[in-house]
Design goal:
The chain is of the alpha/beta class. The chain has helices spanning 10-22, 33-42, 59-69, 84-94, 106-119, and strands at residues 2-6, 26-30, 47-51, 74-79, 99-101. The protein is 48% helix and 19% strand.
């Protein structure tokens, strides 16, 4: 499983990527939307985990751009302070179960990633 994590909290996202890599999940990270778009342009990821509140562009807007590059990529959203409207939109985009509220435990995030992969028939 190859995952891209996008969050403007650099220490959080780099640590999360490191912990996922330790669990055998190939995880890259980006703290800026431009970097996320560049990475997705070069690398095929199974899942992108996007923060809802990013500078310059929301996670929902970023999802649309990344989908243009990689239509088969799946998404999980995370937020520390999303509004009710954000929740409704994010849940509609990724499914209510894949809209997570920070702090998200690593085990819960891994479980959600595995659910996504199983739904795609990529994990048994």
């Amino acid at each position: 499983m190859r995952v891209l994590l996008v969050d403007d909290e650099e220490e959080l996202v780099s640590t999360l990527a490191e912990r996922l890599n330790m669990r055998g999940i190939e995880a890259d990270w980006a703290a800026r939307v431009e970097d996320a778009i560049s990475l997705v342009g070069k690398t095929s990821y199974d899942i992108a985990v996007l923060d809802i509140k990013l500078p310059k562009m929301s996670g929902l807007q970023l999802k649309k751009k990344l989908e243009d590059l990689r239509p088969k990529m799946k998404f999980i959203f995370m937020t520390g302070h999303g509004s009710e409207a954000d929740f409704r939109t994010g849940a509609a985009e990724a499914g209510e179960a894949f809209y997570l509220v920070k702090p998200v435990g690593i085990e819960i995030l891994v479980e959600k990633m595995q659910e996504v992969m199983q739904s795609e028939g990529k994990l048994s």
